[in-house]
Sequence to fold (155 residues):
Amino acid sequence: MATTKPVMVGTTRVDPPEIVGGCRIITLPKIADVRGNLSFVEGGRHIPFVIRRAYWLYDVPGGALRGGHAYHKLEEFIIAASGSFEVVVDDGSERQVVQLNRSYFGLYVPSMVWRQIENFSSNSVALILGSLPYSEEDYLRDYEVFARARHEGRK
Ligand code: TYD
Fold:
């Protein structure tokens, strides 16, 4: 069973953190304004892929888990657009927990990384940018199959 190593990312910039599977916290531009802050992200500039899809998780009931899978090809960038939650990432050997709690940074998750999102605060919104359109064939939903593929260097 993989070990759990917490990576706390509060308001502190972590640049670049050692996160399993090539995951990275990426700090986005923040335009501070008395009228409210503005952040933005451009695919291929701030994150290492062209954005082909966006989806978001919202109205998540307390205690619910989302994800619990990996992707063969899809790369993602996960932002806490509102509130906070934890992303558990796992490369088949090691597991880490990354807390996202500000909307000016996010977690880049490459393909072939098992990820689960949990501990959603009330009214939180997880905004997820993806490198590909939705495809059920791209999902790896069995952890043992995923871990074996990782250990054998398959995608
Ligand atoms: P899934 O990715 O399994 O959700 P999560 O990993 O957050 O628990 O998706 C749940 C359902 O939504 C599944 O039936 C597929 C569908 N779906 C789409 O149709 N398009 C999408 O872009 C996504 C992310 C999911």
About this structure: The pocket of thymidine-5'-diphosphate is lined by residues 53, 55, 57, 66-67, 69, 134 (CB under 6 Å). The helical segments are 143-151. The radius of gyration is 15 Å. The first strand starts at residue 3 and ends at 7.
